[in-house]
UniProtKB/TrEMBL annotation:
It comes from Shewanella gelidii. SUPFAM superfamilies: YggU-like. It comes from the Bacteria. This is UPF0235 protein GCM10009332_08440. Belongs to the UPF0235 family. HAMAP family: UPF0235. It holds the Pfam family DUF167. GO terms for cellular component: cytoplasm.
């Protein structure tokens, strides 16, 4: 599976999360996953909530359109993003599209 897959206008992201980072950012590929650094600590679901908020902001969708489908308790996650309005420039080459 690729790190980012488009499925009928939606995206499925395969992520490797680095919590407690100095800033929020997409790092790049980490094996077959996209590495994402977030500042939130991995305590009591805070990192998951923060990741959802970060991705919603990056893809310009409501938080309700970002769903963690696998890996709630893991650094390795699969996230579904429904109808993203924007593809961040750093991720466009991975999808091979122009948005």
């Amino acid at each position: 599976m690729l790190a980012i897959q488009e499925q009928q206008g939606n995206l499925l992201l395969k992520l490797y999360i680095q919590p407690k980072a100095s800033r929020d950012q997409f790092i790049g590929l980490h094996g077959d996953e996209l590495k994402v650094a977030i500042t939130a600590p991995p305590v009591d679901g805070k990192a998951n909530a923060y990741l959802t908020k970060f991705l919603a902001k990056q893809f310009k969708v409501p938080k309700s359109q970002v769903q963690i489908v696998k890996g709630q308790q893991s650094r390795h996650k699969q996230v579904h993003i429904e109808a993203p309005q924007v593809i961040p420039k750093s991720l466009q080459p991975m999808l091979n599209i122009d948005t």
